[in-house]
Write the structure tokens for this entry.
Amino acid sequence: MTRTERTLAIIKPDAVAKGVAGRIISRIEESGLAILAARLVHLTDAQARGFYAVHRDRPFYASLCAFMTQGPCLPMVLEGENAIQRWRDLMGATDPASAAPSTIRKEFASSIEANAVHGSDAPETAAFEIPYFFAAVEICPR
Ligand code: IDP
Ligand code: MG
């Protein structure tokens, strides 16, 4: 079954700092997913902790939040048929060492933590993550 979905993508601080945000955006455009919103954001510690609250009991939580606040990131709203899974497929596995060839994480990630991109993992997650970064008036429908 296919359905039009929206997902929250983030080009993480490692990829913005490396200067590969444009190449990642090109991958999105070439995939046919539409970018409905985008903005550079330098997260505070409290904002990173809130975004990743689902992981608060994981051993990597503090380190992940420190990483996400080390410089600006670039959140985006993407839309398309099955956008959530399509964006996750383009990203590749969480650990770049396990990511498939030609995925974004395989090509641009440095480590399992500094892994270049984020993507919502389910419709309910997207429903929390999209308004975390974007007000309705900042999202441009196609
Ligand atoms: P995902 O981003 O592929 O959905 P999650 O399990 O939701 O992966 O983890 C969220 C983020 O936490 C990852 O993208 C990565 O930045 C970081 N992370 C996940 N597992 C580890 C780990 O074992 N060590 C350090 N950081 C991790
Ligand atoms: Mg996740």
